[in-house]
Design brief:
The structure holds two protein chains of two kinds.
Chain A lengths: L9 H13 L5 E5 L3 H4 L2 H6 L4 E3 L4 H12 L4 E7 H7 L1 H9 L6 E5 L17 H6 L5 E3 L4 H13 L4 E4 L21 E4 L4 E5 L3 H14 L4 E5 L2 E3 L3 H11 L2 E8 L4 H12 L4 E6 L9 H7 L4 H15 L1
Parallel strand pairs in A: 1-2, 1-3, 3-4, 4-6, 5-6, 8-9, 8-11, 11-12
Antiparallel strand pairs in A: 5-10, 7-9
Helix pairs in contact in A: 1-8, 4-6, 9-13, 10-11
Chain B lengths: L9 H22 L5 H17 L14 E4 L5 H11 L38 H15 L6 E6 L6 H12 L5 E7 L7 E2 L6 E2 L6 H8 L3 E6 L3 H13 L5 E6 L22 H10 L7
Parallel strand pairs in B: 1-2, 2-3, 3-7, 6-7
Antiparallel strand pairs in B: 4-5
The chains are: A alpha/beta, B alpha/beta.
Chain lengths: 316, 288
Amino acid sequence: MTTLAPGKALRVAFGETITELAATNDRIVVLDGDTGSSTRTDIFEKAYPDRFFQMGITEMNMLGMAAGMATLGLIPIVSTFSCFIVSRAHDSIRVLIAQPNANVKMMGGYAGLLAGMTGKTHLMFDDVSIMRAMAHMTVVAPVDEVETRTALEAIIEYEGPVYFRLTRPNTPILMDEDYKFELGKLVTVREGSDLTLFATGTQTARAFEASEKLAADGIDVHLVHVPTIKPLDVDAVVAAAEKTGLVMTSEEHTIVGGLGGAIAEALAENSPLPMKRHGLQDVFGESGPNDALLDKYGISAPHVESAVKGFLAAHR
Amino acid sequence: MTQATMTYTPEDMAEYARQARVRILEAVKHAGGGHVGGPYSAAEMLAALYFGVMNVRPEEPEWPDRDRFVLSKGHSSIALYTMLALRGFFPVEELLTFDAIDSRLQGHPDMTVTPGIDMSSGSLGLGFAGALGIALGGRAAGRDFTTYVMLGDGECNEGVVWEGAHVAARYKLDNIIAIIDHNKLQQFGWTGSSVEERITPYTESQLADRWRAFGWHTMEMDGHNIPEILSTLAAAKEVSGVPVAIVAHTVKGKGVSYMEGNYKWHSKVPTDEEFAQAMEELGEGGAE
């Protein structure tokens, strides 16, 4: 059984990578919403103080200013907590970034369930649903530090608005060091024949851990990582689903409209198959230690494992 | 930086403002909808900006060193379209496509379709944020141009305006000039002595006081007096180390007697009789 090596938090990989990329790309500027010491744009500020713009606690304004800066050919990387970007500045994103296709990269920090001791105001796990519903938007959720680095390179290369999901805790490494992210492409993590399991973001590592345990019990999961939730590679989703004929999704995100919603839409229209969405239910979060949150809200690796077993028991 | 070619006199600008009012009402009547009161209060200021102040190239709307203009009070779009057309950014005849399906002249400004629109706007307060980003980005990109942004007084209700006002002062953005079209009425607004009377969102000095309190160099002007607009904007451009806000005292619906100061003309289509009277008062001597 493969056990994943410990890795850095995605936010650290983010701060380091944009700093590296800025060395050869002078169009990169960073706008921080007074959270740089948490979201790790502080790494960038040290290296490039002249290209770092502290916007204070003005999210609607910050996203709007980023759109203005993009008209000058700059590539604004906007960073603060996901809840403040997606919820608070939604109108700015919609009118000034998405509609005009502004080349702004939105870094939704502290996304998902594991945002430390912050509780329901800060725990943002409907961000993918909301951003996915917006026309012109690209939505990316990397699994680990390796993918964070290569995906950041790709989205900065890409011209257009991107929402990039970043999480807070240290995260195990799933991808090989030479892995190259391709925007819009799925990643087959594990070949299997019993059930196709789609996962996204850091949840894919938990899904991998679960599928290794399941393999020991004779259950062969076909695990597919979906780092680009929008645009979704529908053909590849259908092919992966049809490989086993049974489909499950798992995400550290609400099952309403996120990865589970996207896969369900794709399959319902192209290849309806028995399907189970696993993830956060239609709820808000609360404060608590990470392990306790994963357990209570039912998305730890053992929860993925039992969800797969339950689904298989019902369908074969 | 070169000053805009001063081939237009203040009298020319006043004439363009007059023509703009005619074209605005034609377009709104033709479209069967649209705003009138706010476009009319802004007409002289837009004429002064596009014919006397801003360094722009109608034949090259994306010219990187152009001065920028953002109409943050985006519901007055027809006023801006009219001025852009008169200045030569697109044919004047196109104004009659305002609000039509597939038109480049959308109800609120869309930077992706209309030549000369530097920033989309329409959700109040956001155009201002975009303009601040243009100013800060222009500085970061080493470009020397001035960004002009026009806000409504009602728009200053929006919290995001004050978020941006704070940040602009922090960055000492002296390459942006905000003009607040203080026409003393918003769409519906607060009730005065009766429900037929609506009162100004800000009393005489309140707006200027607020911008000053946020660290902006604040000026006031008569927004219908072209020589005063020109001299105020020229003085504003000389200010360094701090952003400038100009509170422009204007009359909503200016130029047509039955519209002036009447909140009901915020957005309204004239009847044939009203149209004819407006054309006469605007010196057209009868409807076209």
